[in-house]
Amino acid sequence: MSDVVGHLIGGKLVVNAHDRSQAVFNPATAVESRLVSLASTTTVEDAISAAQTAFPAWRNTSPANRARIMFRFKELLHTNADKICQLIGQEHGKIVHDAAGELQRGIENVEYACYAPELLKGEHSKNVGPNIDAWSEMQALGVVAGITPFNFPVMVPLWMYPMAIVCGNCFVLKPSERDPSAALFVAKLLQEAGLPDGVMNVVNGDKEAVDTLLNDARVQAVSFVGSTPIAKHIYASATANGKRCQALGGAKNHAIIMPDADMDNAVSQLVGAAYGSSGERCMALSVVVAVGDEAADNFVVKMSEQMQSLKVGEATDANNDFGPLITRQHKDKVVEHINSAERDGAVVVVDGRDISIDGYEQGFFVGGTLIDHVTASMTCYQEEIFGPVLLVVRAESMQQAMDIIDAHEYGNGTCIFTRDGEAARFFSDNINVGMVGINVPLPVPVASHSFGGWKNSLFGDLSAYGPDAVRFYTRRKTVTQRWPSTDVREGVEFSMPTMK
Ligand code: NAD
């Protein structure tokens, strides 16, 4: 064991003797590589205190100066990219090119945060009444917290804290305890970029750390990304404690393949969307709904062929397409989903259950799996699998395909493959899903838009990053100001004031 992953509190790296700890594994080898500290309530309270102490000066720092730190942070993210991708690979198992893509999508959120002076200008109206002007300004909330999942250890935290911080807040991040090192390393870069101590804090930990953040009255808002059962718990607890909360949950993302689709294009797009990152993406494309048996048969044949060339292996080999799953328990869960599909009468066309990687026989690998003749009543369809498993459901019409998608509890992402613009437009207008692709299999919005699903994929009113993040991390104050003229005095008024 080489080291212990601690916390960043008040600008200092901290490992507390009173914190519990647990092992972090390399999922490609199943070897324990580090320990992560699990913050006690006292440790989390220290982080909240550091953030609270830093807040008065930070809220009064100009947005331009806050943004300048983000410009430097962006440069440091680029210059440290190899190290960041290496840390992601060691603990998550993500292949180096995929980790670089994750980092780039995170950096785009830092770039958006650099617009802070523009985004925080507010609204102004002159002469709304005699000698009266009005403006609305966006004020920082105070201490805000972020709780993030294992599957994007760098990108999802970057959805949150760059924007929260440029809006004038101080932040406490609780990354996933399964792959904590990259998030901590990146937070230190922000410190190196010139951020004052205490504005950004990281506490590693588990439920105890999260519950402390949810219960501490000094925490004004909570952003959460993770699985739906935990998202529901976070949203209910945070809002019951009077905090603002956005809690993004799980997903089951469907692609409709219409009979007129360019099938070769659809297959080459979908293979990466389904199996990239071992399917451990909240926007992973996990269900194809083929309209008509001919389209379904054609898709299954071509996808099976395409899958012959899938390369599965460890993170540092850029020739690999995807790596292991995050833990042995998760691997067992994914395999059990494939078993249950078979028991329920679906057909496993390509089977990744028995894959073995030379030199990495103990790793948590599952190979690319394709399952046909899945129906909506099967457990493998109803639940999020979060593995390299693509299901094929057959529908008789586009309307039936849309009804299937709408009936699912999740509504994160979806897409349609077609050459028919009218059908695509009808689909995007009417489908009950938050993020829609048209011949685009992973419709993850760019950083200047916001990211959010519908139904059980998001609890709260505002989505993550982009313009919604500016609203989430600020509160509006509207000021109505009169400077009375010395020539004309206003008289006494008992009726409701109107702007005559
Ligand atoms: P998870 O829900 O197990 O964990 C997420 C965070 O919650 C972690 O920081 C974890 O420590 C904490 N946590 C776990 N159990 C807790 C408990 N009982 N009380 C308080 N906190 C707890 O999720 P995960 O396995 O790390 O990530 C995968 C899930 O995240 C998938 O369901 C995936 O779809 C979802 N996800 C969603 C999005 C999105 O934008 N909607 C993005 C990425 C991941």
Polypeptide structure, described:
The protein is α/β, with parallel strands linked by helices and 500 residues long. The protein has 2 domains: 4-249 and 457-479, Aldehyde Dehydrogenase, Chain A, domain 1, CATH 3.40.605; 253-438, Aldehyde Dehydrogenase, Chain A, domain 2 (3-Layer(aba) Sandwich). 38% of the residues lie in helices and 23% in strands. It is built from 16 helices and 23 strands. The chain has a 7-stranded mixed β-sheet with strand order 15-16-17-14-13-19-20, sandwiched between helices. A 6-stranded mixed β-sheet has the order 10-9-8-11-12-22, with helices on both faces. Strands 1-5-4 form a 3-stranded mixed β-sheet, covered by helices on one side. Nicotinamide-adenine-dinucleotide binds at residues 147-152, 156, 174, 176-177, 206-207, 210, 225-227, 230, 248-251, 282, 384, 386, 412, 453, 457.
> How many DSSP E strands?
23
As residue ranges, the low-confidence spans are none
Strand order in space, largest sheet: 15-16-17-14-13-19-20
Largest sheet: 7 strands, mixed
Mean pLDDT value: 97
The percent of residues in helical segments reads 25-40%
- Please, how many helices? 16
Q: Looking at this structure, what is the CATH superfamily of the largest domain? A: Aldehyde Dehydrogenase, Chain A, domain 1
Distance between the termini: 75 Å
What is the SS-derived class?
alpha/beta
Task: Tell me the Rg in angstroms.
Answer: 25 Å
**Number of separate domains:** 2
CATH class of the largest domain: Alpha Beta
